[in-house]
Amino acid sequence: xxxxxxxTAPGPADxxxxxxxxxxxxxxxxxxxxxRRFPSDDDAxxxxxxxxxxxxxxxxxxxxxxxxGLDSVVGALQEPVTLAVLAWTALASTALTILLQTxxxxxxxx
Length: 110
Prior knowledge:
Elements: H1 12-37, H2 41-66, H3 70-76, H4 80-105
């Protein structure tokens, strides 16, 4: 159904797709609570860093399980465009947004 493969019975991928927004919302609630308990800017930076490390660990695990192998990754990293895209993704669209989100959620009134 959600995989756009026609009118088929829901499968495991549908369950994952349905639960993803639920757990995403729960993560926001927990992050806001942690931000209120630890309100300093240093704490927000530490919480954001922990989230970035978690993203890196999960991405590395996914590469190990579902990737094409380390050789293809090393080959791709030889391209300057690939490095630029990875730098933008890691710094701007992941680390910076997580830091801003953590900082903002710590200041949301209860």
